[in-house]
Amino acid sequence: MLYMPGPFMSAHLDAWFKPEARREKDKALFVLEQLHILIHKVDANRQTSYVLYESFRRSLRQALEGSGTARSFGIRPSQPNSKRVDIAFLDDYARKQWDTLLFYMVGNTVGLKGGDMGSDISDDTIGLLKLGNLVQSSYGRTTITQAGFNFVLQATSAQVWSLLIVYLKHAESHLGLSETEILSFLFMLGFLELGEDYSTAALTRTQLTTLDILCDLGIAYRPSKSSTSFYPTRLAVSLVSDSASLPASGHSNPTGGYIIVETNHRVYAYTTSLLQIAVLSLFTRLTTRFPNLVSGKITRQSVQKAIKLGISSQQIISYLTAHAHPQMRKTQPFLPPTVIDQIRLWEFDRERVEVTQGYLMKEFNTESEYRDTAAYAESLGVLVWRNDMKKVFFVDRIEQMTTYLERRNRGH
Amino acid sequence: MVKAVPGALVKCDASIKAMLINIDNENRNDFIIEELDEEHLLVKKDKVAELKSRLHEMMKQVLREPDTDESDN
């Protein structure tokens, strides 16, 4: 479609797909339309067809051919720098900055004090965490919020994105920076080569301000504030791909597992990282700490305390699973099933109701209208509950449903 | 004309539902929009958290569950 002069007939598109894959095709087309990549057209003979948005088409062509002056992939400095830093240093830097950030969030809440960690966090970063409602301060003490917990338990690349989205949302209103410029800078950053230095000359003022905060977060590195070059770290490179994410700190084995859970709910964690101990203590009762090991127990109280703070049993289980010690990984599933069940039951103890936000669709004119719309909702995977007697159903997303109903009504 | 009512679908068993309706009745019907069937209620979106905490209060009174069950072994 990129080089096609005319529109692409939807009849031709249908011919490419097996009938049973219709649902996937509709979903994909909807997403592309929402992203303003595709336009859906109906011509005079009621033939439907698709075309690419002109600006998207032009930019993609430029990117593929390397034409134009958009500078999507960064600019290397004109002369080679004598004091280059290597990848290991960048990894170290990124990890230290990011761990400091996480420890600031968790450590303050559980009351752990960690020497040099969590102390040298910049005011800008703290402001960002507060804007994102990830931490809150009351009576001069900073504590983590429910959203903050979800944040800590996520994978690193997801964390980076969540924080950057907070930054983007507030950049325009609070700092008067252009959202578009920041976003294009971030995407550029994602495509840069790890361990290479890039020139700051081509950046706009907005992007330079952004670079400062990215350095604080450990996403980029500048030897000094006035330096004319910067390095993307592994956090930056993993913005657009999953493959090269930053290895976690505090243990030597490459799989990253350090937690052993026994069937009697006892937990042994081989770690020296204060961050990991702090996270663990959110939902375990830690009793003993040795130089390379902490031990404790998952109890009803400790789990319910976590649930009260907004962590779900599923998050606890997936955290334990993701960080299971290699020894635990020999069995399938990694965690003892009794412990998994017990954690779920403890949550269920507190949560006797299941809540889904969304919309109730009701007052359909005809039986067939109800049936078709409900079937469509089901095929999209947004249908949560239906009652055929009352002709009502509940969906957790409404956008596609309104589009569907509008199209349907126009057709009649 | 089809209507879309924004809200939160609450799924629970019949006994919990009875308690929720009880809470709703005692508070000027400020929580529940519609009863859907034996196990489903439509609740006002911004009232879910409050309704939940009231339910916990009620359950605590009814069940009197022991809070200290910490044994070490």
Please describe the structure with a list of short key phrases separated by commas or semicolons.
heterodimer; A: 412 residues; alpha+beta; 4 domains; 4-stranded antiparallel β-sheet; 16 helices; 15 strands; globular; B: 73 residues; Alpha-Beta Plaits; 3-stranded antiparallel β-sheet; 2 helices
Question: What features would you describe in this structure?
Answer:
The complex is a heterodimer of chains A (412) and B (73). Chain A is an alpha+beta fold. Chain A has four domains: 8-65, no CATH class; 87-237, no CATH class; 259-350, no CATH class; 359-411, Alpha-Beta Plaits, CATH 3.30.70.2610. Helices cover 46% and strands 16% of the residues of chain A. In chain A, the strands form five sheets. A four-stranded antiparallel sheet of chain A has the order 9-10-12-11, with no helix packed on it. Chain A is globular, with a radius of gyration of 26 Å. Chain B has 73 residues and is an alpha+beta fold. Chain B has one domain (8-63): Alpha-Beta Plaits, CATH 3.30.70. Helix content of chain B is 40%, strand content 23%. Chain B has two helices and three strands. Chain B has helices at 14-26, 48-63; strands at 3-11, 32-35, 40-43. A three-stranded antiparallel sheet of chain B has the order 1-3-2, covered by helices on one side. Chain B is globular. The chains are: A alpha+beta (412), B alpha+beta (73). Strand 13 of chain A pairs antiparallel with strand 1 of chain B, so a sheet runs across the interface.
